Amino acid sequence: MLWSTTATLGAMMAGMVTAQAHAQALPPAGTAAGTTVSNTAQASYTVNGQAQSTASTTATFVVDRKVNLTVVATDATATSVNHGQTGAVTRFTVTNNTNGTQDFLLSLSQLVPVGILTGTDNFDLSNIRIFVDGNNNGVYDPATDTATYIDELAQDTSRVVFIVGDIPSNNALATSAQVGLEATVATGGAPNTQGTALIPTPLNTLNQDNEIDVVFADNDNDGLLGFDALRNGRGWAYQTYDVTTRNVNLTVTKSATVLSDGVSTLNPKALPGAVVQYCLTVQNATLLTAANNVNLTDILPTTTTYVPGSLVVGSVGTAGVCLIGGVPVADDGSTTGTYGGSYNATTRTVTATIPVVGGGSSVAASFRVTIN
């Protein structure tokens, strides 16, 4: 009978062991790192016809951290920009595929490896910076998007990252600039505190059931040509800034207004000796694209004489009429400031220099002459 009971126990242990795992269904990134998984088994048997049972000891281990991430350019096409544009924005998306909440350190490069992207790379942006989308609206908001690292990104979630920079205005040959964004998985768990880059547990280290090992499982994000490598806890993505606008709809309207004739104060006429004000209004009708380094030159009619010191640049002007404001400019061009200009008595030429006329705006310059 004892032999029979022993045999029955062996059969029960082989055929009636049931698992009792205390873990939830796995999300795409897997069970969160640090989760304690406990498991016991049950054995049932009979002794002299009496049903009996016993439990095994509990096997327990802690889920390790499987580090993974993806970095991609958010937009499928290049970012269109213009010469002289400031704050040009391109977007990337960083996804946390690690089984835990992580910080992500961010860096950029304008030395994109040859072959990663098609096209040329013939200029660099200035004042280039990285910002994280703080309100998750996918649009760069300077007042809101100020963080320079991704803080506490939950597993299987993403965050948009902006690269922001200025396009040079003094390089007419600039057509394309390529930039890259690197994201590095860092420690999480401390909100509003930048974590440090994760260090993997050596693969030859024996697994410890009560410790969280760190294992890099990310792929080579950019292939053999790029900066990335297999299982290094980092990811790269790349994007292009393309200069698409080469010209703007710029017009110059000139008007002449008789200010005084020495006879009538109410309605002066264009009499010899009368003072006439010329106004030149520069209008840029192309929205969002500035015209830079606008130079106006005007050769005076031989029937007129320039009024010394009358050149004013930067006025508000519309339809060729100078309205208010402006900066007086010395005839010899020595005045320093935003606007410039001069009068050359030998060539009878008035010159006015306007650094920038923004898209959809206008700037005027004026000077006076007397009728001979």
Quick overview of this protein structure:
Residues 1-23 form the signal peptide. Helix content is 4%, strand content 44%.
Distinctive features:
372 residues; Immunoglobulin-like; 3 domains; 7-stranded antiparallel β-sheet; 5-stranded mixed β-sheet; 1 helix; rod-shaped; DUF11_rpt; signal; DUF11 domain-containing protein
Written overview of the protein:
The protein has 372 residues and is mainly beta. The chain folds into three domains: 2-63, no CATH class; 66-245, Immunoglobulin-like; 250-371, Sandwich (Immunoglobulin-like), CATH 2.60.40. Helices cover 4% and strands 44% of the residues. The chain contains one helix and 25 strands. Strands 16, 17, 19, 20, 21, 22 and 25 form a seven-stranded antiparallel β-sheet that branches. The chain has a five-stranded mixed β-sheet with strand order 7-15-13-9-11, with no helix packed on it. A four-stranded antiparallel β-sheet has the order 6-8-12-10, with no helix packed on it. β20 and β21 (321-324) form a beta hairpin. The model is unreliable at 1-26 (pLDDT under 50). This is DUF11 domain-containing protein. InterPro entries: DUF11_rpt. Keywords: Signal. Residues 1-23 form the signal peptide. It comes from Sphingomonas mollis.
